[in-house]
């Protein structure tokens, strides 16, 4: 338990150091903002607060915000042993983490509607299996920074969906740098 606490503190220190560098201020200035001291200019405080929020920093004395406990998994259809095995893997893995899975298909609802649903429900992310992303859907993923996992997409995305927020698993060999599922 003590080792976890120390690791958490080291992670937070690294985060605050990075925020200081990005904001162009000293670590002590970031510390003053974190501790809500008054001797920091309004513009500097706003810049540091924005970076703290964007990086998910939670002050030690504040409760962590509730995280979404749900993901959405969208399939082209729910037939065939491959699709059912992938669905079972998603549900089992999410269940181990205490995350609920909403499953659906693109046969009656296009991916664009599932993207809207993801935002409306505050879902932690979206898994898209064996589907094709229209350019408009790709743009929305990038603009809204939606956490997306693509599994065996029917075609390569034309936009550069951010890798840190997006994962592509493929058994078809696209993209060459994808990880095996």
Provide a descriptive summary of the structure in words.
With 181 residues, this protein is α/β, with parallel strands linked by helices. 44% of the residues lie in helices and 14% in strands. Strands 2-1-3-4-5 form a 5-stranded parallel beta sheet, with helices on both faces. The longest helix is centred in the N-terminal third of the chain and has 22 residues, at 2-23. The protein is elongated, with a radius of gyration of 20 Å.
Provide a short characterization of the protein structure:
The chain is of the alpha/beta class and 181 residues long.
Blueprint (SSEs and pairs):
Layout: H1 2-23, H2 27-34, H3 42-54, E1 70-75, H4 81-96, E2 100-105, H5 111-121, E3 125-129, H6 135-144, E4 148-151, E5 166-169
Parallel strand pairs: 1-2, 1-3, 3-4, 4-5
Shape descriptor reads elongated
Q: Strand count, sense and closure of the main sheet?
A: 5 strands, parallel
What's the order of the H and E elements? HHHEHEHEHEE
β content, as a range?
A: 5-15%
**How would you classify the helix and strand content by structural class?**
alpha/beta
What distinguishing features does this structure have?
181 residues, 6 helices, five-stranded parallel sheet, alpha/beta, 5 strands, 44% helix, disordered C terminus, elongated, 14% strand
């Amino acid at each position: 338990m003590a080792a976890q606490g120390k690791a958490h503190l080291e992670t937070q220190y690294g985060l605050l150091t990075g925020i200081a560098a990005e904001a162009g201020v000293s670590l002590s200035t970031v510390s003053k903002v974190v501790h809500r001291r008054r001797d920091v200019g309004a513009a500097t405080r706003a810049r540091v607060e924005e970076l703290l929020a964007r990086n998910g920093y939670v002050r030690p004395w504040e409760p962590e915000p509730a995280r979404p406990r749900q993901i959405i998994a969208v399939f082209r259809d729910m037939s065939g042993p491959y699709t059912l095995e992938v669905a079972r893997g998603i549900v089992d893995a999410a269940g181990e983490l205490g995350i609920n899975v909403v499953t659906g298909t693109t046969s009656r609802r296009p991916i664009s509607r599932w993207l809207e649903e993801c935002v409306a429900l505050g879902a932690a992310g979206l898994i898209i299996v064996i589907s094709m992303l229209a350019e408009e859907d790709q743009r929305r993923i990038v603009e809204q920074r939606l956490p997306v996992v693509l599994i065996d997409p029917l075609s390569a995305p034309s936009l550069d969906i951010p890798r840190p927020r997006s994962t592509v698993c493929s058994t078809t060999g696209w993209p060459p740098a994808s990880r095996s599922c």
